[in-house]
Structures are given as structure tokens and as C-alpha cells.
Design brief:
With about 250 residues, the protein is an alpha+beta fold. It contains 7 helices and 12 strands. It has one domain (about 5-254): Gcn5-related N-acetyltransferase (GNAT) (Aminopeptidase). Helices cover about 30% and strands about 25% of the residues. The strands form 2 sheets. Strands 1, 2, 3, 4, 6, 7, 9, 10, 11 and 12 form a 10-stranded mixed beta sheet that branches. Strands 5-8 form a two-stranded antiparallel sheet. A hairpin with a 5-residue loop joins strand 3 and strand 4 (about 65-75).
Length: about 250
């Protein structure tokens, strides 16, 4: 994305100043720590060492310029660099080290509490589409988060993931984090009967978007007590996106 993108009530643009980046960190703190129950910081900012290596995407309300959402993006030239990603802290990703094409890690995606407009996510994906097209990215990946760390409330969502969306064996992330929920194995042994409607309702919107485009996930969830989330590794191979969905994304991005 070389310039800002405006659709409806929202504008997507890259952070260009320290103040822009700090605004994103402050929104992340509000979403993950204040509203989400993660470990709060005294300075009111959610930040780590990865921020300096990322570009930060801001989704603003066009009227008043209030920040509605944000995320950060890290470009990798290929799978040989995946060990340097944020996700590699939590997942053993040697299977993806042989991925040949450019990759984009999408992280810390959040929407300001109280805003439920699906256009925010739509504008974010349009901006990502521009970034993918401009850089030739072949795989988008990251950690998709469920609020809270109690697994029982998400069993139907995990059932859907287990039944239909676990990664191909050659790319499958392995367990690395000290606390995980091995949902594929656990639900299979329990002969869990998935309620699809309940599962979809419990699925985070960003993850639903990934899956609708042909995305896949790890077979286990990481229990992240710092952010008070459960998250699954999520991958989306660009060539796997259905043609109709790709056209729709580019219509919004144009």
C-alpha cells in the first residue's frame, strides 16, 4: 500500500511517525490488557522488540481521525527467516522453513472495544491486499487469538478447526510453548460432536476471514497468559484464495 486507502467511514494508512506507532501501541494495550485482561503496563503501551522490525497499519475513522483498529506487519523473504518471527516464539515452525516465497506475518490485530462494524476488517484486508500485490507475498501467517484462556467455551470452534482446517502435514506447526491445548487430539479422543453454528459464533472475526479464504491452523492452541488469550498459528497461502474472493478483495483495494 503506497498511500492511504479510504472506503466508507474508514481510512487505512501506514504509521509514519513515532506518534502514529505509539497510538497503535496504546490501542493494543486498551484491547489486550485493559479490555482483554492481559498483563497491564504502567505506561499504557503494548510494545515489544518486534515493533521496530514491523510496519504498523492504522485503520482510522474518517470523521475525527479516531483510531478504530491496527495491526503490525513483518516481511520475510522466505521460510529461511521464519525463526525470526513473533510466532516462532510459540510454535516450532521448521516445516515452514522450506517455504520458498516471500511471507508476511500479521500480528497484534485489534479493533477498538465497542466498535462492531465489519467494514473495519474489510478495509484492513483491502490494505493487506495492496501490500501483498506490491511485494509478491505468497504466504500470510500469524497468531489468531481467542479472548481468555478457558478452553471449554471454545470447544465447538476448536472442533470446526480440527474437522476442516488443520494445516497440511508439510507445513504443520509443532508444539513449542510450555502451555498448550492440543485440541485436535483431545476432541478426537473425546468423540466431540461439533455444533457448527456455535463454533462459528465463537470464532474470532479475523480467523473466520482467514478460513473463508482457504487458511489453515495449527492442531493446538497456545495458552498466552501475558495477553490473556488462546491463539492458534494461522497460515494463508495466497494462491489458495478462491478466485471470486480474490476479485472481491481487489475491488475494495482499488
Amino acid at each position: 500500500m503506497t498511500e492511504h486507502l479510504e472506503k466508507g467511514h474508514y481510512r487505512a494508512r501506514w504509521a509514519t511517525t513515532a506518534a502514529d506507532t505509539e497510538a497503535a501501541m496504546r490501542l493494543r494495550h486498551l484491547c489486550f490488557m485493559v479490555a482483554g485482561g492481559g498483563q497491564s503496563r504502567d505506561d499504557g503501551l503494548d510494545r515489544d522488540d518486534f515493533d521496530a522490525r514491523c510496519r504498523h497499519l492504522l485503520i482510522e475513522e474518517r470523521e475525527g481521525d479516531h483510531l478504530a483498529g491496527c495491526c503490525r506487519l513483518m516481511h520475510l523473504s522466505g521460510g529461511s527467516e521464519i525463526g525470526a518471527s513473533y510466532s516462532a516464539q510459540y510454535y516450532e515452525l521448521s516445516g515452514l522453513s522450506g517455504f520458498a516465497g516471500p511471507m508476511l506475518e500479521l500480528g497484534r490485530f485489534c479493533i477498538r472495544p465497542g466498535l462492531n462494524d465489519p467494514d473495519i476488517l474489510r478495509v484492513a484486508w483491502a490494505a493487506l491486499t495492496r501490500a501483498v500485490d506490491a511485494t509478491g507475498v505468497e504466504l500470510i501467517f500469524g497468531c489468531s487469538s481467542f479472548a481468555g484462556t478457558e478452553t471449554d467455551r471454545y470447544l465447538d470452534a476448536f472442533g470446526l478447526l480440527s474437522d476442516r482446517h488443520v494445516a497440511p502435514r508439510r507445513w504443520l506447526p509443532r508444539v513449542k510453548a510450555p502451555r498448550v491445548f492440543r485440541f485436535a487430539e483431545t476432541l478426537r479422543r473425546a468423540h466431540h460432536q461439533t455444533d457448527r453454528k456455535s463454533g462459528l459464533q465463537r470464532m474470532p472475526p479475523l480467523l473466520r476471514s482467514y478460513l473463508a479464504m482457504g487458511g489453515w491452523v495449527s492442531d493446538h492452541a497456545v495458552v498466552d497468559t501475558d495477553l490473556n488469550t488462546l491463539h492458534v498459528f494461522t497460515g494463508l497461502e495466497i494462491r489458495a484464495i478462491p478466485e471470486a474472493r480474490a476479485r472481491a478483495l481487489r475491488l475494495v483495494a482499488d
